[in-house]
Design a protein that fits this description.
It is a single chain. With 228 residues, the chain is mainly alpha-helical. The protein folds into two domains: 73 residues, no CATH class; 121 residues, Rossmann fold (3-Layer(aba) Sandwich). A three-stranded parallel β-sheet has the order 2-1-3.
Length: 228
């Protein structure tokens, strides 16, 4: 509200928020957040004790329903560890969810799917800043992955036993420094080319928006050179 000039101080913001029905503040990393001013607002009579109780009641009701105040022994999840989270069953389910979330815009003339038997004797080039960089494959608010479970496009295709050559062209998504000569060399010798482009958290996250939808840096040039 301060940023939009609706209020001028944290105290005003706390009063306006509580009066409007807001009962929860998300203020990660702030030592002196907005709702820390609620006691002052209460002392000044800007909000009433009954209103404060009305706002807090559903929060604690929800926490109770979630079992936050139950003994740990009553929580069925307390016995789980990473061996369960990273079990083959869970990883296979994650793989299935990922496969079903892909959107194929065009498939002309029936190029996909690539099968191992179809790649025998074929030279496959995998290029682009997202082709073999595990760090850039995860979006904002993603968990910290375990390296042994990360499959980049290059690593996944190598499991097919194909004859693969690789170059990133540019080492990071911003693609400020682009090696055109290396890309042309790798792509020129290939029968099949996979180009892996995008943005990632280096380019856009929450509170870091882009002003356009263009590919970052030299990525469009990389794509055009590969196609040519």
């Amino acid at each position: 509200m301060l940023g939009h000039h609706y209020t001028h101080t944290f105290l005003e913001t706390a009063v306006a928020s509580v009066n409007a029905g807001c009962n929860l503040e998300l203020s990660y990393g702030m030592r002196n957040n907005v709702f820390m001013h609620i006691p002052q607002a209460l002392a000044m009579g800007n909000i009433t004790l009954q209103m404060l109780r009305d706002r807090v009641r559903p929060l604690f009701y929800t926490r109770m329903r979630l079992g936050e105040f139950d003994p740990p022994a009553m929580n069925p999840y307390s016995s789980l560890d990473l061996s369960v989270v990273q079990s083959p069953e869970h990883r296979n389910l994650s793989l299935e969810a990922a496969i079903k979330s892909f959107v194929l815009l065009k498939n002309m003339p029936g190029t996909l799917p690539l099968r191992a038997q179809d790649l025998s004797g074929q030279r496959l080039a995998v290029v682009g800043p997202f082709a073999d960089n595990p760090r850039v494959l995860f979006g904002d608010y993603a968990p910290v992955p375990e390296p042994q479970y990360i499959y980049t496009p290059r690593r996944g295709l190598e499991m097919l036993g194909a004859n693969i050559s690789f170059t990133a062209g540019c080492s990071e998504p911003r693609c400020q420094r682009y090696s055109r000569a290396e890309l042309v060399r790798v792509v020129g010798a290939a029968d099949i080319v996979l180009i892996c482009l995008g943005t990632g958290v280096d380019v856009e996250t929450e509170a870091k928006d882009r002003s356009d939808l263009s590919l970052p840096g030299h990525q469009l040039e990389l794509l055009q050179d590969a196609v040519q």
